Predict the 3D structure of the following.
Amino acid sequence: MSKPRILVASLVFPEVVQRLAQHFEVEAIAEGEQWPQEEFARRLADKDGAYITGGHRIDAALLAACPRLRIVSNMAVGHNNFDVAAMTAAGVQGTNTPDVLTETTADFGFALLMAAARRMAEAEAWLRAGRWQRWRYDMFAGSEVHGSTLAILGMGRIGQAIAQRGAWGFGMQVIYHNRSRLDATAEAACQARYVGMDELLAQADHLVLVLPYTSEAHHIIGTRELARMKPTATLVNIGRGGLVDELALADALRGGRLAAAGLDVFEGEPEVNPALLDLPNVVLTPHIASATVPTRLAMANLAADNLIAFFDGRGALTPVNAPVRFSQGKNG
Ligand code: GLV
């Protein structure tokens, strides 16, 4: 029986590629290579499975060109690169890597909040530029974190982990908005109060976006929403770039209608809107919220485990669409 063929389309830990090679016939991208969507599609055309890190789109056109494809394993919790309905219709399993990154990502969200509110990046750049001649009482005076109001939009696993840090570690009042309200036990665990979107915006001292990106959530924070926030507030985005209208945000930050922002995700990443690059009061990081070595290794191994479990007939461990069962016969 021939081994399933897997395309590893993003660089990943060599030991994980070696693990995959024990189970599959693997074609893997090499250091220095880049496979734009067309190249990715060409290489995927004769594969049974794909291992990706979220950069490639899996849509109906791609699926139609990949008749053998049975599973796409995303090494990421977010899977807005999947057209889930098209994958389900084509009988293709999609998987992601939830849970293993929750606490690490929450740590980073909180770090970004603190860096933005306390103006750390701006102060550091100023110091490195040799501009520190004397100390002043108002140097880089930012906004308070402890005891302030932490507003969370998107109260899934990561949102709840951020809420716990705020409530228990920093004595913050936590409010949240979500598609559905948490049950009383979950709310109590993170001391969080459910509010409507308008109240969330108006009350926030720090607003953290951690909801999944969907077409309904496109630019969920734009001119109108920013205008409802306090001019002293901080906005943090660790969800997806498309949640925020970046031009409206840059405008609010420049005009003093919002104090600061921390952004780990961007609409056109890896391109960053020049309007943001020019502003001192925004902390910019290159989509690294889950980037610790142990967490990235856990994500990489879970993405591999999904492929292994799928092809040995156990079924994917963390599917994002209806479970698909692999049978050798189907692929001839
Ligand atoms: C990173 O953004 C992820 O979705 O895991």
User: Anything to note?
Assistant: The two ends are 11 Å apart (CA to CA). The longest strand covers residues 149-153. The mean pLDDT is 96.
